[in-house]
Amino acid sequence: MSGRIVLHVDMDAFFAAIEQRDHPEWRGKPVIVGAGPHVRGVVSTCSYEARKFGVHSAMPSRTAYSLCPQGIFVPPRMDVYSAVSAQVFDILGRYSPFVEGVSVDEAFLDIAGTVHLFGDSRTLGEHLRAEIREKCGLTCSVGIAPNRLLAKIGSEEAKPDGLFVMPFAEADIRAWLAPRPVRILWGVGRKTNEMLARYGYRTCGDLQAADPRFLRKILGDAAAESIRQHANGMDVSEVVCEEEEKSVSREHTFPEDETSRDAVRAMLLHLVEDVGRRVRSVPRWARTAKLKLRDGAFNTITRQARFELPARDDMTFRHLMLRLFDREWPEGHRRTVRLAGFGVGDFTLSRVDPEPSLFPSSASEMMDKRERLAEALDRLAEHGARLGCIRESCDKHVFR
Fold first, then answer.
1. Do residues 282 and 181 both lie within one domain?
2. Is residue 328 annotated as part of the catalytic site, yes or no?
3. What's the rounded Cα separation, in Å, for the pair 153 and 108?
4. Both 191 and 263 in a single domain?
5. Is residue 274 domain-shared with residue 354, that is, in the same domain?
6. How many domains does the chain have?
7. Can you give the residue range of the structural domain that contains 176?
8. pLDDT single digits (tens) 55-108
9. What gap in Å lies between CA 23 and CA 98, rounded to an integer?
10. Which member of 19, 49, 106, 258 is catalytic?
11. Is residue 392 situated within a structural domain?
């Protein structure tokens, strides 16, 4: 292995855990965050108590109600969740300068340069978990490994509220992975899992012993090589900080291949909220936005578009994201998505774009209003304000 030490931190049932923290009477009960039980919409996340009934994220809320009618259905408070996420990321930054945020509740840290301050990686991880528990009132699961793939698998192994250190020697890694099901690997969604099972590949050990030529025949060259490497614990991807990419992006991997357009759309709207808040953490305006969709076979498409004027507010971000999404996935069309992501980039330090523009001053005035509104909501969210309904109402008013 390369000598890297990667830590993956995943907040436990993040949105639901915040609701249980803020409503002590809900602790130990099935809490379901998302659309109401009798309306068209999906579950954003749910507590572990609800998961025992088969409820999971991206599930239609009506289905969740049929499985768990005693569940406590709560509308999302994205501003509150974003404020808590910022608090968590502030803590992570004290354990490594190299933090790659994946979503509001998940991140990779390269801790190779800071582990000596704590003695060993396990001690660092336990200190991190204790600080999040003390300052945020929440639990998280941590995986530590020589690369991103194994760190992610390790945090899943630790759930909930635990820490797992993966083997670091190559032979030990392959031995540890061998009996595990292939579905734990990146790139193995429901359909790929079913296809591999038809040919007798059910465990990582089966893939380790597979003929690469046959895998390429059934999966295609790129997917076969990627999955074969992952089955052997190999992953060369680096922990990448936003500053290095000169962009801010967030992604969400669904627990199973997602075929519901509404579920993917709703998740993207959540991601836009976090991207907007992080963009506004420093003076900068984005010129471009990017939509990312990946299916269970690891086929990825990205669609990019330019803002009319450099932007930093959620409303403008949402408007362009929805335009890209509707174009890529029109209503009535069928497709499968395993990962969805949204990001903005090509930053400038001023909204006055140095490139020539023919847009009227009214567009600039509208952007001023949206920015002031977004910044005001950010400030209120830092104090725990419950602004989900306010933001929705303001959006309707501004777009009217």
1. no
2. no
3. 12
4. no
5. yes
6. 2
7. 172-231
8. 998 889 999 999 999 999 999 998 899 889 989 999 999 999 899 988 889 999
9. 34
10. 106
11. yes
